[in-house]
Amino acid sequence: MTLEDIIYSRLTTDTTLGSQLAKYGKKPAVFFQTAPDDTATGWGQKKQYPRIDYIVDYVSNPERKTSGVLTLNIMSTEDGTPPEELEPTVRQLLCGIFITPDGAPPYSMAWARSDVFDQTRDGSDGIVVGITLTFDVYAFPSQITTDPDPVLAMNHYIEELLPEAEIIGGKKPTARIFTPSQETPAFYFRLETIQTQRETNTVAWMDATIACHIFAGGEETTWLKYLVDALALAGEVIMLDTSPMFLQSLKADNTLDALSTGQLRIFARFGILRRAPYSHPLLHANREHKNTGGD
């Protein structure tokens, strides 16, 4: 299923929203891109409003691979259910969740704005009133790189610290639709910067900045404080090659957006062990013994 398919399923299977929409082919009137003409047989000679149409526009994102904008229109007639009554339900269905299409990373959406409009119906003196909702769409691709991997180390640390938590972009696939909550928070780690700090004969020390995004259904501050306390007390995170990743400092800011920037920056230092020098084997060695005349 694509992101558009899952959005359609999400909107049409909700009984609260479905009961307030017109029916097309016995299904709630939700359409990708454009709705059928008002004379289409699927309407069954019944009312064609309220109804919803939507479209997702994707753009390239250097860090997230893809991101985009979801534009959704709720339309109704003057004598029908006002779009303002349907808007809160639509926003609740689409925000605060992670959607994972087939062969794609998880996506999450944030409401950006709502704009009211009205238009004249084709072939009628009636007026269609509506609201255009705009959502920002964020992708959460896996940030796992090569060993030693600071992101993989943080994923493993959370798995041991909070077995009930969901790791977005981790090795375990995220559910088709996942809703973070206070009881089941979600964490997403990504590598922001990495640079060489110093080099020795045995190890190259690297400084890394790791961004952490926390989702907990409105209880993000609680989990942010919990994670900061746990990391501060630990002082280090053991990487998968059993070497330590030292936590130089932590910077938490709950005013930052969880979807776009993340609320926590972890400044860490870890080492990359140098390989032992490779000695070529001595081939075709000849040993010569000279007799000097002694015993």
**Total beta strands:** 15
Number of helical regions = 5
Share of residues in helices: 10-25%
Mean pLDDT: 90
- How does the major sheet shape up? 7 strands, mixed
Query: Which structural class fits the helix and strand makeup?
Result: alpha+beta
What's the CATH C level of the largest domain?
Alpha Beta
Portion in beta strands: 35-45%
Q: Are there runs of 5+ residues with pLDDT below 50, and where?
A: none
How many structural domains does the protein architecture include? Answer: 2
CATH topology of the largest domain: STM4215-like
Q: State the order of secondary-structure elements, H for helix, E for strand.
A: HHEEEEEHEEEHEEEEHEEE
List the SSEs and their pairings.
Elements: H1 3-12, H2 15-18, E1 23-24, E2 27-28, E3 30-32, E4 51-61, E5 65-77, H3 83-94, E6 98-99, E7 107-120, E8 127-139, H4 150-161, E9 166-167, E10 177-178, E11 186-199, E12 203-215, H5 220-234, E13 236-238, E14 244-252, E15 264-273
Parallel strand pairs: 3-4, 9-11
Antiparallel strand pairs: 1-2, 4-5, 5-8, 6-7, 6-10, 7-8, 11-12, 12-15, 13-14, 14-15
Q: What would you say this structure looks like, in words?
A:
With 295 residues, the chain is of the alpha+beta class. The protein has two domains: 137 residues, STM4215-like, CATH 3.30.2000; 124 residues, Phage tail protein-like (STM4215-like, 2-Layer Sandwich), CATH 3.30.2000. 18% of the residues lie in helices and 38% in strands. The protein has five helices and 15 strands. It has a seven-stranded mixed β-sheet with strand order 3-4-5-8-7-6-10. Strand 13 and strand 14 form a beta hairpin.
